[in-house]
Amino acid sequence: MRIVLVGPPGAGKGTQAAYLAKNLSIPHISTGDLFRANISQGTDLGKQAKAYMDAGDLVPDSVTIGMAKDRMSQPDAANGFLLDGFPRNVSQAEALDEMLRAEGMRLDAVLDLEVPEDEVVKRIAGRRICRNDSSHVFHVTYSAPKTEGVCDTCGGELYQRADDSEDTVRNRLEVYHTQTEPIIDYYKAQGLVVTISALGKVTEVTERAMAALPNGDKAA
């Protein structure tokens, strides 16, 4: 099964992608992982991406598309994949369609995780990270520490990352609405979009997504 996962920041795409990929026995291909892998391995595409990033510039679509094409051509993706963070705009979506057509393939579904904007802000702006270990993550509402501002695990100070502030989150949402959300209409025209609510427990959202996918009951 070949799936594109879309949704606003804070929708839980990374978490759901991992669960869905495991349930469907297909690789989870995220843009972040592609960039890290190519840069750490020193590939030509990785060197190009790093040069743009070091200069503070956006990485061109052509580089991102090249990385995605290379990853999707690997043996473990022969029977499908779940794309997370790619395509990020309509140009990338059109390029993906061309890549798949050239191989005689097509997408099976575009899974749209729907979350109200106020909930997105609440989820992200409420996160608190431990200064001693960034893997220790709390939330002022959903998983509050026993003592405010103190990590339950190691006693370190909890803080809010700059990019988790409400103003920054709303800016990120605006970028999503402007750049990425149009791909939903692009794929709706192809009859591929499956929209599900991303509210509730992680397992509930996963079950909802599996049931909504084409032949989802069999895939589970």
UniProtKB/TrEMBL annotation:
Q: Where does AMP bind?
A: T31, R36, D57, L58, V59, G85, F86, P87, R88, Q92, R161, R172
Enzymatic reactions:
AMP + ATP = 2 ADP
According to the UniProt entry, its GO molecular function terms are: AMP kinase activity; ATP binding
Q: What are the annotated GO cellular component locations?
A: cytoplasm
Q: In which pathway does it act?
A: Purine metabolism; AMP biosynthesis via salvage pathway; AMP from ADP: step 1/1
InterPro entries assigned to the protein according to its UniProt record, in alphabetical order: Adenyl_kin_sub (IPR006259), Adenylat/UMP-CMP_kin (IPR000850), Adenylat_kinase_CS (IPR033690), Adenylate_kinase_lid-dom (IPR007862), P-loop_NTPase (IPR027417)
Start and end residues of each stretch annotated as NMP: 30-59
Spell out the subcellular localization from the entry.
Answer: Cytoplasm
Q: CDD domains this protein is in?
A: ADK (cd01428)
Q: Which Gene3D superfamilies match?
A: P-loop containing nucleotide triphosphate hydrolases
Kindly list any coiled-coil regions of this protein.
none
Keywords, A to Z, come to:
ATP-binding, Cytoplasm, Kinase, Nucleotide biosynthesis, Nucleotide-binding, Transferase
Q: Where is the signal peptide?
A: none
Report the EC number(s), separated by commas if there are several.
2.7.4.3
- Entry's Gene Ontology BP terms: AMP salvage
Q: Give the principal location in a single coarse category.
A: cytoplasm
UniProt-listed NCBIfam families: adk, PRK00279.1-2, PRK00279.1-3, PRK14527.1
This protein's domain notes: Consists of three domains, a large central CORE domain and two small peripheral domains, NMPbind and LID, which undergo movements during catalysis. The LID domain closes over the site of phosphoryl transfer upon ATP binding. Assembling and dissambling the active center during each catalytic cycle provides an effective means to prevent ATP hydrolysis.
Q: Which HAMAP family match?
A: Adenylate_kinase_Adk
Q: Which family does this protein fall into?
A: Belongs to the adenylate kinase family.
Describe the protein's quaternary organization and the partners it interacts with.
Answer: Monomer.
Protein's job: Catalyzes the reversible transfer of the terminal phosphate group between ATP and AMP. Plays an important role in cellular energy homeostasis and in adenine nucleotide metabolism.
Q: What is this protein called?
A: Adenylate kinase
Q: Which organism is it from?
A: Streptomyces palmae
Q: What is the lineage of its organism?
A: Bacteria, Bacillati, Actinomycetota, Actinomycetes, Kitasatosporales
